[in-house]
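> Could you send the Cytoplasmic aconitate hydratase prediction when you get a chance?

Sure thing. Input:
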Amino acid sequence: MPAVYCFWEIPSPLTTSHQLAPLRGTHLLLDILLIREGVPLIAIVGKDYGSGSSRDWAAKGPFLLGIRAVIAESFERIHRSNLVGMGIIPLQFLEGDNAESLGITGKETYSVQLPETLSPGDMATVTMDNGKSFQVKIRFDTEVDLTYFKHGGILNYMIRKML
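Output:
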C-alpha cells in the first residue's frame, strides 16, 4: 500500500512524495487529486488517536479521503473500533517507537506486509522506499474486527449478510 501522507506534522507546503509536490494549498486539494488517481493513503499519527473527536465521522472522513491504514502510537478505544468498521487498518507503533524515533518524515512511500492469515494481535512489517523497515502491531483485537476487515468494513459485511 503506497502512502504519501503524514498527519503527525502538517507543514505548508504539503508534505508529500507525490509527483504533485510541492503543491501549495490545502490537504483537501491533495486528497482529491490522490483519490482520483486511486492512491491509497496511510495516516501517521501520535498518541490517543481519535480522542475527543466526533466518533463515527472521525473514521468516515479519513475513509472518504482515501486513507486505508493508520499508524498510531496509541488509539482511543472506540475510535479504533470505528476505523475497523470503515475498513481502515489500525496499526500501532511498538512500545518506544514513533514517527520521530524511526525517522519518518512523511515524504516516504510505504508498503505494509500483512500476514496471509490474520489473527488478533498479529504483527506487520512496514517498509519504506528508503530501505528502512519497522514492525507494527495490527490492532484487530477480536475475530469480529477481522470479519469486518475481510469484508471491507461493517457496511459491506451487513449488506453481504442480508443478500
